[in-house]
Amino acid sequence: MKLIVGLGNPGEKYKKTRHNMGFLVVDDIAAKKSIVMRLENDFKAEKGDFGDINDRTMLAKPQTFMNESGQSVSKLRSYYKLDTEDIWVIHDDIDLDFGKVRIALGGSSAGHKGVQSIIDQLWTDQFWRIRVGVGKSDLIPTEEWVLMNFEDDAKLNDMVDKTADYVMSSLDNGLKTESINLN
Q1: Which of 59, 72, 141, 176 is the 20 to 30 A CA-CA neighbour of 128?
Q2: Which domains does the chain carry?
Q3: Nearest Cα to 3, choosing from 57, 40, 42?
Q4: Active site residue 112
Q5: Residue 52: Cβ within 10 Å count
Q6: What integer is the mean pLDDT of 3-10?
Q7: Positive or negative CA dihedral for 174, 89, 125, 150?
Q8: Closest CA to 41 of 72, 77, 81, 3
Q9: Catalytic: which of 2, 18, 19, 75?
Q10: Residues 54-111: tens digit of each pLDDT
Q11: pLDDT value at residue 81
């Protein structure tokens, strides 16, 4: 079983913010697979799954707010007895330009509090990260920047769609450490 976790903040006001890139990608995968995401309080997440019994993929969006994402991921890992290498976390990255995606197994959180929460709760950094570039501003503080909406819905939708397609194709081929440009 694979667990694909999209990081973000719950609530309508955060829906199209940079920090919700993980939620947006997971929602796109769910739509393409006709999966209904349901709130499951035991896991503190919206979740859904697809695939057959021997090759299941679970989608999850922690509902704990970004900085406590590890609570949800830890509960899912324990309940489903997952190896951490089968956990794929999709999240925003201000250090990557918009349109860039970097995939890696393990490593530091690079200051991303949602990723750090997962590392702290799992007691390991050995899970896959799919870091989706949202860029940064020299004029706007990072804490404000990530909570701002994207300016161009068409570009955002294209980026989300291409990232979701990449993740779904990787289910068959596996992830590998790489940097890609989805522009």
Answers
A1: 141
A2: 2-181 (3.40.50.1470)
A3: 57
A4: no
A5: 6
A6: 97
A7: positive
A8: 72
A9: 19
A10: 889 999 999 999 999 999 999 999 999 999 999 999 999 999 999 999 999 999 999 9
A11: 97
